[in-house]
Amino acid sequence: MKRFLYVILSLITLVFWSSCRQDFIFHPSSDNLSFSKDTVYLDTIFSNIGSSTYTLKVYNQSNKDILIPSIKLSKGQNSNYRMNVDGLIGNSTFVGKEFENIEILARDSMYVFIETTIDILSLVGNETHFLYTDAIEFENTSGIQKVELVTLVKDAIFIYPDRDTDGITESLYFDIDGDGISDETSIRGRFLEDSELNFTNEKPYVIYGYAAVGDGKTLNINPGARIHFHADSGLLITDNASLHVNGLPSLDSDLLENEVIFEGDRLEPLYEDIPGQWQTIWLYNGSVDNVINYATIKNGTIGVLSDGNELDPSKFQITNSQVYNHSNFGILGRATSIVAENLVINNCGLSSFAGTFGGNYNITHSTIVNYWSSSFRQFPALLLNNFIVDIENEVTTNPMITANFTNCIIYGNNNPELLIEKEISEGLNFKFTNSLIYFDDLNGNFTSAEYDFSNSTTYENVIFNNDPLFLDPNNNRLTIPVGSPAQGAGIIYGNTNKDITNTLRNQPPDIGAYNAIEFDD
Description:
Blueprint: H1 2-20, E1 27-28, E2 33-35, E3 39-46, E4 54-60, E5 66-73, E6 81-85, E7 98-104, E8 109-116, E9 129-140, E10 143-154, E11 157-159, E12 171-174, E13 183-191, E14 198-199, E15 205-207, E16 210-213, E17 218-221, E18 226-229, E19 234-237, E20 242-246, E21 260-264, E22 281-283, E23 290-293, E24 295-298, E25 302-307, E26 316-326, E27 329-348, E28 353-364, E29 367-370, E30 382-385, E31 387-389, E32 395-397, E33 400-406, E34 409-412, E35 418-421, E36 431-433, E37 436-437, E38 459-460, E39 463-464, E40 480-481, E41 516-517
């Protein structure tokens, strides 16, 4: 009986105490909200591609719990923005557009999450850029407080793969094994039409899946073109097809107005240097006469993958180009031929340049370095071998006909930054001439003939382990200063009388892609 009376009295006390508390009485909001920003800039997006999610923090600076009667977008249901308020999606009539009776405790805050997807054609005629604005309105007893929303929308040319009647994206068919018969692949994409084989600089291109170039055709890309790839997308140059990237020198080293730029389709600053946003430019076995000049290729999985045609010196030529921030390789060659001059590669999850399964490589005045986090990288900046290992661990060999590196810098934040792997059943011919290499064998682990640095037939006038003193290698600023050990250490070779910035080379020439310059203090 006493226990029963105690429970009754406890309940009465709790009800009485709760009825006296004022903490959960929410007062209509007056002009007492503050915000983490007065304008939310959603950066630049492509037409019909969703933005990232942006955050606005709303503060109740008062000592009272408040009730905001409504939070809504000024353009209402017609707005191209959408919101989530502290996990709420809004009422059923205006989901993501309007919210009612939102509570904030005294001296507390809440989050508003904002996204947008905008079709530029619904806004304005044929303009390629449009500044889209709206505002979030916070109602209070004194009126309305506003936070502005601003987004720059860019029009683009979209290249999509077709879908079948079941909504499945089509796979590419082409001759994989050279028997003259088209084979089904697992590669999602479509072949470009003849009318699509000339990319201009009038609008950016956004590619979904692989855009493939068919037998005997050439994709020409004009100076200043911008090519953006969606996730898991790329270019595929098939049998007897060609890629011609026709960039030109730029006057502005930041804008690169005449270079051709390949990157992902996320334009927000957050994604500016994120690797792995797309797949690769794939120069398939049998493709011919592939030329890349004055291009920047960044933020993919493999910048360029070149397969086969090892005896064809015109298989792949790349000049005056930069390859940055790839999650695997910057350039990967497999039993192929690559000619490179004034090439810069940096920040790759595996190797910056890999010549594998043999092949034919002639690289001049190039800066092949890797400043990817050394804690997560097991491969050197430069990898050469004459074999390939399949998924069943079977080894297949192929001779390395030539691998010549002249006036090159091979460096990075790991040691060593050069690895030469040889299966003795096949030849592996290489030579480094007037180059700077980071290779400090502190523990004597590399004793094979490939690392006999006294052998002038493979290492001639090579500088080892001297820091080239790059301006800011972690951010891909790989110019060298006056006084660098690479200054004046090169030889006159080939047709590279200008450096990658289109400036006449110093005499004697400096090693790497850049002339040595005076750095600003």
